[in-house]
Design goal:
Blueprint: E1 4-12, H1 16-27, E2 32-36, E3 47-48, H2 52-58, H3 62-67, E4 71-73, E5 75-79, E6 86-89, E7 98-100, H4 103-116, E8 120-123, E9 131-133, E10 136-139, E11 147-155, H5 162-166, E12 171-175, E13 178-185, E14 194-200, E15 203-210, E16 214-221, H6 234-241, H7 245-253, E17 257-266, E18 269-272, E19 276-277, E20 280-282, E21 288-289, H8 299-316, H9 322-347, H10 355-361
Parallel strand pairs: 1-2, 1-11, 2-8, 5-14, 11-20
Antiparallel strand pairs: 3-7, 4-7, 5-6, 9-10, 10-11, 12-18, 13-16, 13-17, 14-15, 15-16, 18-21, 19-20
Length: 363
């Protein structure tokens, strides 16, 4: 390929954060090219906190989102520090309730909106050799895509933060963690509308109903505590659920049957040491990652995608403080999250000598 793709902004990653940035930038009149692969298979990340509908409305997706059939989430329940469930509902939240979504359909909705408002979506990886010179990013042509020329880059590549790390930016680890996640299909009517968190000696379980008559469930734990093969079976998962009576009974009450093979994914809490640099900004999981006790879910991806894009637009209009200010806000947000998460971990004192909790109590 010899022609050159010219854009104001190249976005690396077509997930929720990348698409939120693309829509925001296109609304501002910028030419946007989004590189990303449509990921096959199931992924976790299906909850939206009460603040999400307002963000989706800003992206022009308020009505479309509701038409897509998300499940309302009216409360969070937790067995934390006690075997008795404690409830936090959204009745007094002026923003309303949260939602549980089908992740693949949610991402498809965002991609369709990005294209509809003028962003160009290119299937595949962005050029890895993007180099910054005289205020312009340039990348060489590949077999699949032409050479690239853009004023800005948005790193929305997820936890890998591939672009930012190639710029020499390191990732700061707060604590390591993995999630063993699985999906189960119900055989009885699904009539629950809440998220459940249940602490166990090995970590904590998360479960939530999602559209299509299914539950998503994840054990947040440390990889060293489990045999990587045996726990990825129905019997292995069942043995782990034996320590989680609320989660187990929830699934049994709906006749839930395991679908597919459970998988381990990284669920560590991390942040980039800086979320911006000359001509670039990081959003979503590329910038910072929380675990589910923070109760933000996909809302954090939408929020940072929009905010990072708005900072970039301000920079394009001459406000040199916008990108550093955005990065500083993320740093403050991560520190507040870290303090609150560690406080919550200290609230669970039933198994102080269990390796998972012992590690967190020492952080």
């Amino acid at each position: 390929m010899t022609r050159e793709l010219e854009a104001d902004v190249v976005i690396i990653g077509a997930g929720p954060a990348g698409c939120a940035s693309a829509i925001t930038l296109a609304h501002a009149g910028l030419r946007v090219a989004v590189f990303g692969r449509t990921q096959a298979g199931e992924r976790i990340g299906e909850s939206l906190s009460p603040g999400a509908p307002a963000l989706l409305a800003r992206l022009g997706l308020g009505e479309r989102f509701i038409e897509d059939g998300p499940l309302p989430c009216h409360a969070n329940a937790s067995a934390w520090g006690s075997p008795v469930l404690a409830w936090h509902d959204f009745v007094r939240d002026p923003r309303g309730h949260g939602f549980h979504v089908d992740r693949m359909r949610f991402e498809a909705m965002l991609r369709e909106r990005a294209v509809a408002v003028g962003a160009r979506l290119l299937e595949g990886d962005a050029p890895r050799d993007l180099a910054y010179e005289d205020g312009v990013w340039r990348g060489k042509a590949t077999d699949r895509h032409p050479a690239v020329r853009a004023r800005y880059v948005v790193d929305a590549s997820g936890r890998a933060a591939s672009f930012a790390r190639r710029q020499g930016v390191s990732r700061q680890l707060a604590w390591e963690q993995v999630a063993l996640f699985a999906f189960s299909r119900v055989t009885r009517q699904l009539d629950e509308a809440f998220t459940l968190i249940e602490a166990v000696p090995e970590g904590f379980w998360y479960s939530a109903p999602i559209p299509g008559g299914r539950f998503v469930l994840s054990l947040f734990t440390e990889a060293s505590l489990h045999h990587p093969t045996s726990v990825r079976t129905p019997d292995g998962l069942g043995a782990l659920l034996a320590n989680a009576p609320h989660t187990r009974l929830r699934l049994e009450a709906h006749g839930a049957r395991l679908e597919g093979v459970p998988r381990f994914v990284d669920a560590s809490s991390t942040q980039l040491t800086t979320a911006c640099g000359p001509g670039w900004v990081a959003v979503g999981d590329a910038a910072l990652t929380y675990d589910p006790i923070a109760a933000h879910g996909l809302t954090l991806a939408l929020r940072t995608g929009i905010d990072g894009a708005e900072a970039l637009v301000a920079d394009a209009h001459g406000d040199a403080s916008a990108l550093p200010a955005y990065s500083a806000r993320l740093g403050r947000a991560f520190e507040a999250y870290r303090r609150e998460a560690l406080r919550l971990y200290r609230d669970e004192q039933r198994w102080p000598d269990a390796p998972y909790w012992h590690t967190r109590h020492r952080l």
